[in-house]
Specification:
- The structure is a single chain.
- A hairpin with an 8-residue loop joins strand 2 and strand 3.
- Strands 1, 2, 3 and 4 form a 4-stranded antiparallel beta sheet that branches.
- The protein folds into 2 domains: about 70 residues, no CATH class; about 110 residues, Band 7 domain (Tetrahydropterin Synthase, Chain A, 2-Layer Sandwich).
- The termini are far apart.
- By secondary structure, the chain is α+β, with helices and mostly antiparallel strands.
- Helix 5 packs antiparallel against helix 7.
- The chain is built from 7 helices and 4 strands; from the N terminus they run H-H-H-E-E-E-H-H-H-H-E.
- The protein is elongated and about 95 Å long.
């Protein structure tokens, strides 16, 4: 039992030391462990705040990156065909048949737009056969142009490339019905989309 008494004494002494450290707050050695605990709590609070700030900065960076990517994909693309390229190859002057103005609604579902366009059909100078046939088929030609224009959405014809495609479509459709020759070009004298 001698060993047990020694153990009891040790435990008692440790408890006494513990009580002394709690009670003796005035001594410098016992204060330091208490200060370390407070500093440790303070540093973990600062670390936590820094982690929150870093997380917010990362979220902002991700949001800005996604916004930039979405904006760059949805932004209007510049026209691929420039005006200089369109009129690069100068052709000899043509005779033209100017048609009365067209005012037509687009085929847009979400928001209706109105196209106002004045068109002239170009053909080889002094080609009497084509000139006469164009005059005879003017009502049929207007009908073809009306159907083509009314089938278009604003975004399909609001660019230079879109207008060039529209010209080619009109030219091909008219040339399909002509017997005595072909038109060489389609000119948009006025072109307005509201």
């Amino acid at each position: 039992m001698g060993d047990k008494d020694k153990l009891d004494d040790l435990n008692f002494e440790d408890e006494a030391e513990l009580n002394e450290t709690e009670a003796g707050a005035g001594e410098g050695e016992e204060k330091k462990p208490a200060e370390k605990k407070g500093f440790k709590g303070l540093s973990s609070g600062i670390v936590r705040i820094l982690l929150y700030i870093i997380g917010i900065i990362i979220l902002i960076a991700i949001s800005v990156t996604i916004s930039y990517l979405v904006a760059s994909k949805t932004a209007e693309k510049p026209d691929k065909i420039s005006i200089e390229q369109t009129y690069k190859n100068v052709t000899p002057p043509y005779d033209t048949l100017r048609l009365a103005d067209f005012t037509i609604n687009t085929s847009d579902i979400d928001e209706q737009h109105v196209i106002r366009v004045t068109i002239a059909l170009a053909y080889t100078q002094k080609d009497a056969a084509v000139s006469a046939e164009l005059a005879q088929r003017e009502a049929q030609i207007r009908d073809i142009i009306n159907r083509i224009l009314s089938a278009k959405r604003k975004d399909e014809i609001d660019s230079i490339e879109g207008k060039e495609n529209l010209k080619n479509e009109i030219k091909n459709a008219i040339n399909n019905i002509l017997v005595n020759g072909k038109i060489k070009d389609v000119y948009f004298i006025d072109f307005f989309i509201s």
